[in-house]
């Protein structure tokens, strides 16, 4: 259950989203664990928790998720906005890989909209810590799961999140109006659909890394030069 609530931060009131679950909800506990140790402008920030009676996660209140935003605001969202969303997602995802975290459920409905130029990845309940649990298999949404994960012996890794990123690119390009894989794109936007196509390569080792995706996308945006420099993570 999630609801809107006022919250005091640095002596002022702000609106936050309250996510309330049972104390033994594994996904909420996992989300709290991950969010408490990461910090990135394109990942939702955990404001606080409370475990009295039920487990509560406190996060900033946003406009909604990217899926609904794309459908609602498609008349004002430009190709540059779409590239920017993909760049910000790939920047956050390369940071997560640097932190040895695989999201495992990347999709437009798990991305929050701060404003038309700023998005944040959320919903880390299915995420896997590669440092402690390498070799684990975690399944997210059927339409976004990497093909190899349907084999019970496969493991989640950066390449499986890259596949999900490819599906998320599809959602962004089509304004979430088409079913992934089943409908053709009439006017492919080459700069970002390249990563959709490469993200779906059957051989996981041939898929691009998030750092590679980010660097290429950043170069195609006016603000890209602000990112490509000392912030670059190792590929």
Automatic annotation (TrEMBL):
One of its GO terms (cellular component) is basal plasma membrane. Residues 1-235 form the Protein kinase domain. SMART domains: S_TKc. Coiled coil: none annotated. InterPro entries: Kinase-like_dom_sf, Prot_kinase_dom, RTK, Ser-Thr/Tyr_kinase_cat_dom, Ser/Thr_kinase_AS. One of its GO terms (molecular function) is ATP binding. One of its GO terms (biological process) is positive regulation of cell population proliferation. This is Protein kinase domain-containing protein. It comes from Panagrolaimus davidi.
